Amino acid sequence: MADGTSAAARKFDADRAGEYAQQSRIALAGYEACHELAACMLAAVLGSGTPARLLIVGAGGGGPEIVTAAALEPGWRFTAVDPSSAMMDLTIARLEQDGLHDRTEIVLGTVDALPQDAVYDAATLIGVLHHLPGDAEKRAILQAIAGRLKPGAPLVLAGNHYAYASQPLLLAAWGERWRQHGASADAIEARRGKILQGADPPHSEAAVAALLDAAGFEPPTRFFSSLFWGAWLALRRAGSADGA
């Protein structure tokens, strides 16, 4: 997992981190709704008002998973993991602004940097999987998460799926979304070229389910969709102590 994760972290340098908050909300129509529903799905499984420890993987960029979930459930505490220092700086600043720093452990690195005996009640992996090259890297991060979850614990997985070029209508609509927010034709074409070359999403919803199954999770339930983006909740399968 280290090589693919390091390459993904290098993509999110200081320049990209600085524009992330605005651009992610354009690229993903329904950005806030996805995070709000993710928190609701986790609360539906864990129970309203129940104390819990949540592992937030890929928490850089302002930590919207933490901010949204913390507002819904005051008894939840978080471990925020991200290998990009520029992205994590944004999250630390937001957590301090919202008074959430005391509820959050910051880990600059990967899931593998966590103690082997660390156990969590739930986890999120939002906007990460499609940045990791190849199925082996994707399975590795999911297995690392599964290995640190209690049996039956929920994982919220969200990110792009489909091979972008295989969905020309969705790709065209994605470009129109940028035009809707003032992007020029040249800027849209540049962004289209970047997305076609710079990410490797699972190629279908079935591929997402297969990755989760191989990592030790039950079949997922999709609760959000927006063009290429999907969000699912899957429970860690009981009896697979190593996450596989």
TrEMBL record:
Superkingdom in the source lineage: Bacteria
Gene3D superfamilies reported for this sequence: Vaccinia Virus protein VP39
Enzyme class, UniProt record, top EC level: transferase
GO MF terms, alphabetically ordered: methyltransferase activity
Pfam annotation, one family: Methyltransf_12
GO biological process: methylation
Keyword tRNA-binding appears in the UniProt entry: no
Domain Methyltransferase type: 55-154
E.C. numbers: 2.1.1.-
Alphabetical list of SUPFAM superfamilies matching this protein: S-adenosyl-L-methionine-dependent methyltransferases (SSF53335)
Keyword terms of this UniProt record: Methyltransferase, Transferase
Annotated protein name in UniProt: tRNA (Cmo5U34)-methyltransferase
Organism: Methylobacterium fujisawaense
